[in-house]
Amino acid sequence: MSVRWGLIGASTIAKQFMINAIRAQGDGEIIAVMSSNAERAKTYAGENGIPVGVSTLDALLNAGIDAVYISTTNELHLEQALAAIRAGKHVLCEKPLALTSADAREMVAAAKAAGIVLGTNHHLRNAGAHRALRDAIAAGRIGRPVAARVFHSVYLPENLQGWRITKPEAGGGVVLDITVHDADTLRFVLGDDPVEISAFTQSAGMAGGGLEDGAMCIWRFKSGVIAQSHEGFTTRFAGTGFEVHGSEGSLFACNVMTQKPVGSILLRTAAGDEDLSFDREDLYTRSLRQFHAAIRGEGQPSATGEDGVWSLAAAEAALQSARSGKAVIIDPKLGSAA
Ligand code: NDP
What we know:
single chain; alpha/beta; Rossmann fold; Dihydrodipicolinate Reductase, domain 2; 2 domains; nine-stranded mixed sheet; six-stranded parallel sheet; 11 helices; globular; binds NADPH dihydro-nicotinamide-adenine-dinucleotide phosphate
């Protein structure tokens, strides 16, 4: 039986990646798209071969669908997800799940009570590169992990220089946009949870409205691993990467903090240098495959709702640290709410 999808949000990410990823599944079908603007809904539906474009959530939820993909601006995710959950639809929601981790916990609790599948679209854990890093560490190839470094400062493409850099009320800023991904990827690759973070943020000339367009964070993990991450919107030539350094070796992954299945990984140990090969499947297609399996009762989405709470709790703590000038404890409070 196919999974019939409704898209909430006539967004760039859906157009660039998610529509294709749904259609790449043998059992995925897109039934309708919702935009807040009726004309835009119609145009977007037409341009993307979607049968129906609607302008209300009710109309979308009543269009004969099984699941929704939410990719509106961040302040809308919570209410839209709760409405979909009430209507019994499975929910794949974009990151950040909401504007606060308390709201994200409410989403997770509602999904759990309703027995529906909730996933967070953290694409990077679906990357072959990050799975290879995780596997190499779990196999002991670098001994005991000691430290990690994440290089994720990019140049925000001109077509995306909208709400992210102008609207605090929509959940703009680089921390809710990119630090959440770094939180999730660090947790995934290290197989560990962060407990504390210290952050500096900046406004380097692109973002307005008091929003940050650059951040540097220092993280401490449960195991004692420390990490640093750099997120930005304003660096055209920085390149991206992910490194993990251990007692017996180091992993250097280049060009891997990206939406595409690209990049390279070098393992350096006393035995010398080794290039690690990895799977090059499209990240979003893999995410969708796991989500469909979860709907069938086989496993979980690659990033669950709880994972989305974790990444948002970390981003929240980073923002709080940047404001206060102090290190902040990361506490997703999952035990009590989820
Ligand atoms: P967009 O700005 O493209 O879309 C967000 C909303 O803005 C849309 O729902 C739409 O509202 C409105 N909009 C978009 N384009 C136009 C336009 N030309 N004219 C008028 N309104 C427009 O955002 P993104 O696709 O970049 O991001 C959407 C969500 O996805 C965010 O939560 C973001 O964090 C997340 N994201 C996740 C990524 C990932 O890899 N996991 C990557 C990129 C984004 P309406 O629907 O009402 O028409």
